[in-house]
Design brief:
Two copies of one chain form a homodimer.
Chain A lengths: L4 E3 L10 H10 L10 H18 L5 E6 L2 H12 L4 E5 L2 H12 L5 E4 L19 E5 L1 E2 L4 E2 L2 H10 L4 E5 L16 E5 L11 E6 H12 L10 H8 L10 H17 L1 H21 L3 E3 L11 E6 L3 H8 L4 E5 L8 E5 L6 H15 L1
Parallel strand pairs in A: 1-13, 3-4, 3-5, 5-8, 8-9
Antiparallel strand pairs in A: 2-10, 6-7, 9-10, 11-12, 12-14, 13-14
Chain lengths: ~350, ~350
């Protein structure tokens, strides 16, 4: 039986070079080497170097490895917020980030839009006491993105607040200006096409200073994954605990492949595939684009309303050995979500559109 | 160049069947499937079933998947301790567990022995206010274990305290009595021979009740990895976040292999190899057994003092393509540590002893 091709939004298709890298990991015994030895330090260094190159991350920012973006939500709130974070909520993941702050005993605020809607900075009032602005650049649940210039305007409104950008399902597509953004984070099972189990947290000194300030005030900032603990070990190219060495190795390899292709080419291909998909949904009889405002349409997570049930769409795709993502939660049957990640080629996306056209117009 | 054989204590040798299971994971697209779908639920169920069978875990206890045993230390303290935990500290890892309690703002107590020494229950006074007794059954740093009957006596002394057993580098060798032990936890890069990045937490209802009690008292017990959150999702064979699906799949497969071999056979082989190694160290001119008290000698982590530096020992093993673990921290050069894990066979252990005998007597 031929393998199916998954256009689901995460976990998603593995990056095409991954099986070869996994074989190399087995040959080099990456699962066996000590996380306190030089071989691991070299893996750590390579991964950081490749990510810095790919995403143009300056030395003002550090790169830490955790277990998931979900964990990073918790660590941000523990380390960088005493009382008040502001959350721009426009989907299930940004909402969950806000709820974490409540569960940790903070007094967060949220500004909420309807599902499928995005934000413009001009409409956002930031409280004076706000310590952290938490933005989900790309909502995997709704396919809504926030344009980078709108994110930067938030920082202008509150220069003393730290700006955290959840970029789980868009990195490395957005070209962030790290002079403005204090922290970006993502997980690897989306655009990097790796198995899940690794989160990457990019933070500047201001975030670490805030954690140290809270610590000096005798506030608990957690334990092994506090920012000072992560920073202390990262200086020596290590992690506080035995990490997911395997995935750090694979991430370095995939980022290297992406660097060999070139980030501009990768962005160009992403734009091409996004345009193809949106164009099709715009002209389809069965589908319509879910995000009404054009500037809020994600380039990497493409969501469409569907007249027939999402499960029916996937039944029609069965003879083609293709799978699209269903809608999120209560939109499970009324929307489909399509990953426009680097692991999926222009040709594969063309074939998906052809199949959908043939079956559903 | 032939691959080296690692007798290091973790990460350690991968279980011999692992490359085949990894190939199956690639063929079945385990890195791509949704963690909210039936295929993942089946992987979750199989892993839990195989672990229950292997370790004889009754239905009174639940099995949760986290990212590391280090994380589980933190979650235990957040979820099951309001103020006072008691820590039996006899090495670096048990010490770190105690320090986590301090960092989380608790008021823990510790009872400490010298490095290389163990505990007898008769010497342990447990405070009336103790909520949790935290025992490291097998100290990976020193090679000291605590016999199970001694652990059970602690519970007799303080029946109202929850008993947590760190069994990171010994599971599935110890045959725990789950009528006495409230919680056991481990990570997979030791005796299961998997790549690191997954921690397994076995807990009974009393632990979950304690977390719910703290929550009712408006104490923060964390967010996505609180016990109620883990429990709520596990009932549906899921995890709160996108987990390390890959490793949950592989753990189920390796536990199944171990069940096919039989836990009694696995324990017998462990005993045989341990006896061989201790016998050799007892008669060697260069080595001596590090743990003086026989009942405190670990069966799975065998530590010896070495007259020549540990790095010299490994140089002598180079022509044999074998590597032993160096001592922990300040014992780096004066001790060696040898993994006696299921991934390493009796024959391989014999060859190691032959090589050491030939080179160092």
């Amino acid at each position: 039986m031929p393998q199916k091709l998954y256009f689901t939004v995460g976990p998603s298709e593995l990056y095409p070079t991954l099986p070869a890298h996994i074989q190399e990991a087995l040959d080099k015994k990456i699962g066996t080497i000590s996380h306190r030895g030089k071989a691991f330090q070299d893996i750590f260094k390579n991964c950081v170097y490749q990510l810095r190159t790919l995403m143009n991350i300056p030395d003002t920012h550090h790169i830490f490895f955790l277990s998931s973006a979900t964990e990073i939500w918790e660590r941000i709130l523990q380390n960088c917020v005493d009382q008040k974070s502001l959350h721009l909520v426009n989907g299930s993941f940004s909402k969950r980030f806000y709820e974490f702050a409540v569960e940790l005993g903070k007094t967060p605020e949220k500004i909420q839009t309807d599902f499928g809607k995005g934000f413009f900075a001009k409409d956002i009032a930031i409280p004076n006491t706000c310590e952290a602005i938490c933005v989900t650049q790309n909502e995997t649940s709704s396919g809504v993105c926030m344009p980078l210039n709108e994110i930067y305007l938030l920082k202008q409104k509150a220069p003393n607040a730290l700006l955290f950008v959840d970029s789980v399902s868009s990195v490395p597509y957005p070209d962030y200006d790290y002079k403005i953004v204090d922290s970006v984070f993502f997980s690897v099972q989306k655009c990097f096409g790796l198995p899940a189990g690794l989160g990457v947290w990019i933070v500047n000194e201001k975030c670490i200073e805030k954690a140290n300030l809270l610590l000096a005030q005798k506030k608990s900032i957690g334990t092994y994954h506090s920012l000072p603990s992560l920073f202390g070990k990262a200086k020596d190219f290590q992690t506080p605990e035995t990490p997911n060495v395997w995935n750090i190795f694979l991430l370095g390899k995939v980022a290297e492949d992406m660097n060999n292709k070139g980030i501009q080419q990768l962005r160009k291909e992403t734009d091409t595939k996004a345009a193809m998909l949106y164009e099709y949904f715009n002209s389809s009889k069965n589908f319509s684009i879910a995000v009404s405002e054009p500037v809020h349409r994600s380039a990497t997570t493409i969501v469409a309303n569907t007249a027939i049930n999402a499960s029916e769409v996937n039944k029609k795709l069965e003879p083609y050995n293709m799978v699209v993502g269903s809608g999120y939660s209560s939109y499970k049957e009324t929307q489909i979500r399509i990953a426009n990640f680097p692991a999926l080629s222009i040709e594969q996306t063309e074939k998906l559109i052809e199949a959908l056209k043939k079956e559903l117009q």
